[in-house]
Amino acid sequence: MGITQTDDTITVPAGRFVMGSAAFYPEEGPVFTAEVAEFSLDRTPVTNRQFAAFVAATGYTTGAERKPDAADLPGADLADLVAGALVVTGTTGPVNLADWRQWWAWVQGASWRHPYGPGSSVDGKDDHPVVQVSFADASAYAAWAGKRLPMEEEWEYAARGGREGQTYSWGDEPQQPGALMANSWQGRFPYHNTGAKGWVGTSPVGTFPANGYGLVDMCGNVWEWTGSFYTGRHEPVAETRPDGGCGAACACGPDPSAERATASAEPGSRIPRRVLKGGSHLCAPEYCLRFRPAARSPQAEDTSTTHIGFRCAR
Questions:
Q1: Fewest CB within 10 A of the end CB: N or C in the chain?
Q2: β-pairing, 192-193 with 104-108?
């Protein structure tokens, strides 16, 4: 069956593909053949306009707008338990790239409406991807929309756009001749960024070319939540989708979600981690060459940042 498209979604045909990569980061392996059933995927990441409509209809309050639960942060000073989120701040010059705390800060009052804190706004950015949304926030929106979050293998298969075995959604080189293909860091990370097509931070969805399936921003702009629990290496085993279907290399069986959730958490934490896909506007070759379909990153479910968004599947 071929690709079908509405204004908002793309129907991705069933197929098999080679998932992962052995050329970049160890968590992208082992490489294996995955099988994906037909599904629909939002053409773009969910935008500020779409998320605002959800909040207006439901009165939903995001995690970043709520005071953290002390039980999730044992040992934390109660005075520090305030509503807020992680904000990228950059630096004034070169720094040790092994210490991410030099360009990230927890900012009280940061939320999807104020991504960089109380003095910031999404006014005039209706068509930018919504950010500062946790896994629970993304899942709540998806349920309201009658959809779900894509599983990791679905996301990667769709991001490849039918280009089997190539590094990027558009080929093997990070840029096409004379064309910037994705919103990634332009300059020297984390202190000098000239902006992708002039956009420093997020860009309006669809600013950069669509892939072979007609999907936009599958690489760069914002990392995107998936429904898959994180593992340090690919584990091509049964994984049940929220709608009862199956993921890569899947033979339907007992739901392994509880065990996988526990195993996904960082040592010493009880908060599960999910797989992020796609890279973001912060990806730079010297630090994070991850605006590629095979790239993946772990993120605790309660995290909200200025470079994580999502799109929905069905």
A1: N
A2: unpaired
Give the position of tokens 């069986």: 253
Cβ-in-10-Å burial (0-12, 13-18, 19+) of 144 comes to middle
Q: How far apart are CA 26 and CA 20, in angstroms?
A: 10
The position carrying tokens 């605790």 is 300
Q: Who contacts 192 (Cβ-Cβ below 8 Å, separation ≥6)?
A: none
Q: Where does residue 122 fall: left (phi above 0), alpha (psi -120 to 50 degrees), or beta otherwise?
A: alpha
Residues 6+ away with beta carbon under 8 Å from 265: 271, 272, 273, 300
Closest by CA position to 18, among listed 249, 246, 307, 189: 249
What is the mean pLDDT of each successive set of 10 residues along the chain, which is 314 residues long? 68 96 96 96 98 98 89 68 93 95 96 97 98 98 97 97 92 85 96 96 97 97 97 73 50 59 92 97 93 97 97 98
The pTM score is 0.90
Q: First-to-last CA distance in the chain?
A: 17
The conformation of residue 71, written as its DSSP 8-state character, comes to G
Q: What is the largest CA-CA distance in the chain?
A: 57
182: Cβ–Cβ under 8 A, 6 or more apart, which residues? Answer: 168, 169, 196, 208, 217, 219, 220, 221, 279, 291
As given in the structure block, the two tokens for residue 248 are: 């890569």
Residues 6+ apart with CB under 8 A from 39: 11, 12, 150, 154, 313, 314
* Distance between CA atoms of residues 137 and 49, nearest Å: 15
For 159, the 3-state DSSP assignment is helix
Within 10 angstroms of residue 198's Cβ, the number of other Cβ atoms is 9
In sequence order, the β-bridge partners of residue 274 are: 229, 299
